[in-house]
Design a protein that fits this description.
Largest sheet: 8 strands, parallel, barrel
Strand content: 15-25%
Number of strands: 19
Structural class: alpha/beta
Radius of gyration: 24 Å
Number of helices: 14
Shape: globular
C-alpha cells in the first residue's frame, strides 16, 4: 500500500518545508484539493467572462495557479507524489438552473461540458511541458481523482428528487467523470492513475433524505451510477430515463463503451471513516454504508456491476480519507491513545486486504475551524501523543495475550524507511523491544530485517513475561524513533 496524506493548510503556507516533514514521516503522496472555483475567473458571477477559452491554462489568473504550481514543484523536488483531486465547488456560471432560492448553490447540476474544459486546462498545465511565462516547465502530474464525495449534497446536488425516490447525483457524477476522463486522455494523461468514486462512507435514509443537499448512502449511489436497481437488475424504461440511464436493453449494451471510466479507471476511491469505535464495527441496520467494515461489500458491489456489463474489472480500492477525531481538542472525540490503536488496527486490516491500494491519513494537523480534529498534530503543530507515533511507525498485535512460551504475531511498518533506500531494494533493521512490568527500560528481543519497499513487516516474537512492547528504529545518521507502546499479557 502507498501512503497518502492531506495537509492543505501547511502546503499552502510552506510547501517545501511541509514536503520535507512528509518525507520524514514516509508519505508517498499528498492529496491536493483543486477546487474549480478557486481558479475560474468570475467564479461568483452568473455568466463567464466573454471570449473565455476554458480549455487554455493561460485563460485563468496566474495568481490563482500559483499555490498549486508551488505545491507541484515542491513535491517533485522532495520526491513526494501529488494526487490532484479536481473537485467542487464549480463557478456559479457553470451551475444549472432550478436551484432552490436563497444562498447561491454552485454545486447544483454543474455543467459536465464546462468541467471537461477545465480539466483540459489543468491537464495541459501539468503535462510536464507547460512553461508559465518565462519559468521552467512545471512538473508533470500523473495521479488524478475526479470530484470529491459526489454522494454528499454540499459537493453535488441535487442528490435525489421525488421525495428521494429517484437518484440524481449519480447521473450528474457519471457525466462529470466522462468529461474528465475524455479531457485527460485527450491531453496525454490516458496512461496516468485516474481514480473515480471518492465517496463518503455513510448517508441518511430517514425522512425525505438525501433530498437536495444531504448524503446518499454510498452503495445506493454506486448502483445508480451503474444503472442497476437494488436487486442488480439493469434499469429500463422510465426508471432508467429518470436516472440518466439507457432506457432499453439494446441501449444498455452500449453503456460500458459510452462510459469507459466506470470500467477502466485505475481504481475506486473511498473515505471509509469510522465513527468513534474500532474499524471492525459498523451499523448493522445500514446495509448500504461503505465505512471500513463494509469495504468487502463495496468490492463485491463494484465487481458485480462490472460483470453485468461484461467487464472483468476488479477495482483496487484507494482509501483517500481516514482518521479519528480526538479529545482533545474535540470533546466528542476519542482519547488519542485509543485512536492510535484503532488507526494501527485499521492499517493492519487494510494490509491484509489485497484489494486496498493505499493507506490515508487525514489530516496532518487539526484544523482551526470545524470539528475534524483527525490530525497527527494539534493546531499548534505539536505532535499528538500516541497518534503521531502510530502513523510514523505503526505496530499491531492481533492478539496481545499468550501463555508462557507462546509466540505472538507482531505486524508493523517503518514508514520513513521508504525514503532511505527500501524503494531501491535495500533493507533496514527495526528492533522489537520489550519492557517487563515493573522493569526500568526497554530491551531488544528481536531485530527484524525489513525489505518491503513500503516498510511493512510481519513476524512473531515470544514475550518473556507481561509487559510493554514497542518498535525502535533510527534514521540513517539521525535520531531514534519509537512506535506507540502495546501492552502484552503473559499467563
Amino acid at each position: 500500500m502507498q501512503t497518502i496524506l492531506e495537509a492543505p493548510v501547511q502546503l499552502g503556507v510552506d510547501p517545501m518545508g511541509t514536503f520535507k516533514l512528509l518525507r520524514q514521516l514516509g508519505v508517498d503522496r499528498v492529496r491536493v484539493f483543486m477546487s474549480w472555483a478557486s481558479l475560474a475567473p468570475r467564479a461568483t458571477a452568473r455568466v463567464p467572462p466573454s471570449h473565455f477559452n476554458a480549455a487554455s491554462p493561460g485563460a485563468y489568473p496566474a495568481a490563482a495557479w500559483a499555490p498549486y504550481d508551488a505545491i507541484v514543484r515542491a513535491g517533485a523536488t522532495a520526491g513526494v507524489g501529488v494526487d490532484l483531486n479536481i473537485t467542487a465547488p464549480p463557478p456559479l456560471w457553470a451551475s444549472g438552473s432550478g436551484a432552490p432560492p436563497g444562498v447561491p448553490r454552485p454545486q447544483w447540476r454543474p455543467s459536465a461540458r464546462e468541467f471537461g474544459l477545465f480539466v483540459k486546462a489543468v491537464a495541459k498545465r501539468y503535462s510536464g511541458a507547460y512553461k508559465p511565462g518565462s519559468s521552467a516547465a512545471l512538473p508533470r502530474v500523473s495521479f488524478w481523482s475526479i470530484w470529491n464525495e459526489p454522494n454528499y449534497g454540499p459537493q453535488l446536488a441535487p442528490q435525489a428528487i421525488n421525495h428521494s425516490t429517484v437518484e440524481v447525483s449519480p447521473a450528474l457524477y457519471r457525466q462529470l467523470v466522462d468529461a474528465a476522463w475524455s479531457a485527460l486522455h485527450e491531453t496525454g494523461h490516458g496512461g496516468d492513475t485516474i481514480l473515480i468514486g471518492e465517496i463518503a462512507p455513510r448517508g441518511l435514509t430517514t425522512g425525505d433524505n438525501p433530498g437536495n443537499f444531504s448524503g446518499m448512502v454510498p452503495l445506493r449511489f454506486v448502483r445508480a451510477l451503474y444503472c442497476v436497481d437494488q436487486s442488480f437488475h439493469v434499469l429500463q424504461g422510465v426508471a432508467a430515463a429518470e436516472r440518466g440511464c439507457p432506457d432499453s436493453a439494446a441501449a444498455s449494451k452500449q453503456f460500458a463503451r459510452q462510459n469507459p471510466a466506470l470500467f477502466k479507471a485505475s481504481g475506486f476511491a473511498v473515505h471509509p471513516y469510522p465513527q468513534s469505535g474500532p474499524p471492525t464495527v459498523t451499523d448493522p441496520t445500514q446495509p448500504d454504508y461503505a465505512d471500513f467494515p463494509k469495504l468487502p461489500k463495496l468490492e463485491a458491489t463494484l465487481d458485480r456491476v462490472n460483470r453485468i456489463y461484461g467487464s472483468n474489472t476488479q477495482f483496487p480500492l484507494y482509501s483517500t480519507e481516514y482518521g479519528y477525531k480526538t479529545n482533545p481538542p474535540y470533546v466528542a472525540g476519542v482519547d488519542p491513545k485509543q485512536a492510535a490503536a484503532y488507526l494501527n488496527q485499521a492499517e493492519y486490516l487494510s494490509w491484509l486486504n489485497p484489494r486496498i491500494a493505499s493507506w490515508d491519513q487525514y489530516l496532518l494537523a487539526d484544523p482551526a475551524v470545524g470539528n475534524f480534529a483527525t490530525g497527527l498534530e494539534f493546531l499548534n503543530n505539536k505532535p499528538k501523543p500516541f497518534v503521531y507515533d502510530a502513523f510514523r511507525m505503526p505496530v499491531y498485535l492481533p492478539t496481545a495475550s499468550a501463555d508462557k512460551g507462546q509466540s505472538l504475531e507482531v505486524w508493523g511498518c517503518v514508514r520513513p524507511a521508504h525514503f532511505t533506500g527500501l524503494d531501491k531494494g535495500r533493507t533496514t533493521v527495526v528492533q522489537i523491544q520489550f519492557k517487563q512490568s515493573g522493569a526500568g527500560s526497554y530491551k531488544t528481543i528481536k531485530p527484524v530485517t525489513v525489505d518491503d519497499a513500503d516498510g511493512y513487516f510481519d513476524t512473531r516474537v515470544t514475550p518473556p513475561a507481561s509487559g510493554t512492547l514497542q518498535l525502535s528504529w533510527a534514521y540513517p545518521g539521525g535520531p531514534t524513533i519509537h512506535s506507540r507502546p502495546v501492552s502484552v499479557t503473559v499467563h
